[in-house]
Amino acid sequence: MQKKKYLNYPFIILSLLLGTVFTEAQVREFRIHDRGMLHETVYNTGDIGRGWMTGQAGNITTTPLMEWPSRSATIVDNIKYSGQHNILGGGMYMAANLQGKPGKENRIYSLCGGVGASSPETVYGRWSFPISIEKIENYPLQPDGTVNPAYNPDEAEEIIIARWASSLGVTVTRTSRAYSYPDYDDFIIYEYELEYTGDTDGDPSTIERDSVLTDFMALFIYGFAPSMYGYQRHYQEWKYDSGIYRGDQNGFWDADYWLAFNLNLRTNITDDKLWAKPEPNIDLFYNFAQTGKNGGGLCSPQAPGFMVLYYDTNHLAVVDPNDPNRNESEVVDVLRTNNGEFYELDENNHIKQPWSNKVSTGNTRSSKMKDQSINPDKRWSGVYSPSSVTWPAPPSTEWYGRAAYNYRQSVDAGQKHIVFGPYTLHPGDKLEYSLAEVVGYGAAPGKVLEGGQVIQQWAPTPSWNRKIVKDGQTLTEHYLDEYGYPDYVNSEVRFVQQVAHKALEAYLGQQVPYDSIGNRPAGGPIWPESMPKDGVYTVPVTLPAPVLKVENTEIGAIRLTWNREVESFTHPRLSGPLQKFYILRSNAGMGPWTILDSLEVGQVNDKDRYEFLDTDSTFKIGETRFYAVTSVDASGIQGAKTNITRHSKNIGSVEKMKEVFVAPNPFIIESGFGGAVGAENQIGFYGLPRRCTIRIYSYAGQLIKAIEHNDPVYSTEWFQVSRNEQEIASGIYFYVVTSPDGDKKSGKFIIVK
């Protein structure tokens, strides 16, 4: 579980100066979803990914920002890249008026994450007041490899619950869920509960507000940019101006799934032959495309997006355009201006949802967003009507009166938000919403959608199976035909619509048929207002990966071992019985993975454990590789790689200490190991047991350094510094090595500088 805490020190100091009691609850914390292929950072302030930023500081990250595929940090041409991160930031807003105080001048806002421009605006202590955050690991196996008796088969594997109060007096509880199972590992589902508690500062013992809230609106916002790695390879930055904004990417709206997503359709602004940002170095393009290294030849094939699964229709304001004196909302004049026939109202005189469905620039400074995004004075994206929309077949008249997608701004692309309301809230009232983050390898090719174009409303989405031309040279005529998908696309669920479909199935807890062409739900669009307000989460399950132990041996091989507990794992929706295990290795955490071998069920060693010995001589001492073992059922379905283990090769520690020696000896400054910073001063001690103490003495018998070795490797290093962190001088030195069982070895070595 992520334990880091990030304190808002200026806010704490100001609170102390003003005499405010500052509690532990008012601490900005995050937890990380890192179980599946999609990794994300979530905060107890509303932020998703990070505080919103488009500037230079946004080019490096140490936490995942809608990272897909996971573990994607890499080094290319001696340059470090943070990896395949896909959002500028995300969050949610709320706004309302107090009853009897209408108008924008009296409007109260709580912008909980997703606010900023070149740098983020601080939301915590201003609009958002953290209460708590908790990560629940509902894993099939426990850390020791045994079956988890508390495992709930009807819940997600990873659950994060974050709570925060707001300056509006509405307390938010956000529960997010993630899976590792192939088909279900490319999305995260978020359920929001908004309760009008009256708590405006995060201290629930005092209630600051109890007036009725009118024209309450809730907004959910993301900034997409697929992907950080692709932009950096081409521009050396996550390029905002003429890159993310009105540059290389476009936004799309798939109304079948209530899905907004982005694609990278150009590079260098106008070159549409470089869609998805193919690797700019032609030699590396061929290498990566053929081997799958760094995800293949396309640097930005991601289609990141979010979909709406449920929105609340309870407490929607009553709007009677024929009797303005009986309205609960200020939107009457807006409706009268927009449409004399009032397509916007349902049979209960509620505004059809969503209120707004907008794509815009990545600049989300608070002054702009307060004015343009979450007010009842204007529906910024307009509405669909018979006169304004020519729908592709089949027509969907149910969309008439709902907020339109403003396709003309789909080239702005950096920001996407959707707004629900207006509502009337009394103290104690609750609203609920559910959304899913989704990422696919591109979108369903040829599906006619809104967006992606400036000159027309509807256009077919592109396929990544396209021609690539670089510097006048045709690199391939059909990329996917020639090179296929990278192995992080680990199932037949590939396109972002397919990922959205699986998120829908997880939420409903049942399979939903596709239509005849396989890119929309059978029967037409989903209608979130008709969906359950809480997810069901009964999904098909694959066999869990065993808990893996990786260690060096005395002969310089790598030993992998795991117990037999997976054999006894049961589940009401298990894909099939265990048949075998695959042993995999990779040079990078994201793959590509090579199957080294397989072990059949019951093929164990004399200690009743599964064991594999990697004796590959091309894997050198000091190098690092990644290992994983997956479980395979009788139908050939392979489970997730949840036990990925990074390992540096060494010689294993000795069972019984026999001889200890030092190298190089004599040490001359030019004879150091080289390579890493400081390694020019490195001396190695070899022949060590797992636990021992190394004491180094001067020629005069003074203790220079004591090193506690507690590692199952054959050696340890020393960089010639004393216990006072001073570099030692030339001379003769002695060492004494003692082990807990009483063994003792000694010797001497010479330093020449």
Report on the structure:
There is one protein chain. This protein is mainly beta and 753 residues long. The protein folds into three domains: 5-316 and 353-451, no CATH class; 549-648, Immunoglobulins (Immunoglobulin-like, Sandwich), CATH 2.60.40.10; 661-752, Immunoglobulin-like, CATH 2.60.40.4070. It contains seven helices and 37 strands. The strands form nine sheets. Strands 8-9-10-11-18-15-14-13-19-20 form a ten-stranded antiparallel sheet, covered by helices on one side. A hairpin with a 2-residue loop joins strand 4 and strand 5 (79-81).
Quick overview:
It contains seven helices and 37 strands.
List the keywords:
about 750 residues, mainly beta, Immunoglobulin-like, 10-stranded antiparallel beta sheet, 5-stranded antiparallel beta sheet, 7 helices, disordered N terminus
Q: What proportion of the residues is helical, as a percent range? A: under 10%
Task: Count structural domains.
Answer: 3
Biggest sheet overview: 10 strands, antiparallel
How do the strands line up in the largest sheet? Answer: 8-9-10-11-18-15-14-13-19-20
Q: What count of helical segments does DSSP give?
A: 7
Care to count the β-strands? 37
Gross morphology is elongated
Mean pLDDT: 90
DSSP strand content: 25-35%
Oligomer: single chain
Distance between the termini: 47 Å
List low-confidence stretches: 1-25, 671-678
Which structural class matches the secondary elements?
mainly beta
| Radius of gyration (Å) | 29 Å
